[in-house]
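In this section we walk through a basic example: taking a raw amino acid sequence and producing a predicted 3D structure, encoded as discrete structure tokens. The instruction is simple. Fold the sequence below.
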Amino acid sequence: MILGHPDNDTIIWVRPYGVYVPTGDEVNIAWPVSANGVVNFAVSNLNQLWFYFVGATDKIIVAYTE
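The resulting token sequence is shown next.
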């Protein structure tokens, strides 16, 4: 589970299994996570998650179970 930190000012983009680069391409898909927003993913390893931070001070919270 990916949670946007409550103090975030911008949207953070999250994508499993591949780097997200905001090009406007329909093939280049990511999910937006705003402040207090939640996105759920099932991945076998946390290093398969990629994040694109628009704001320099924004943060995410990652909650996971094994």
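Looking at the output, two observations stand out. The mean pLDDT is 88. DSSP finds no helices and six strands in the chain. In the next section we compare this with other chains.
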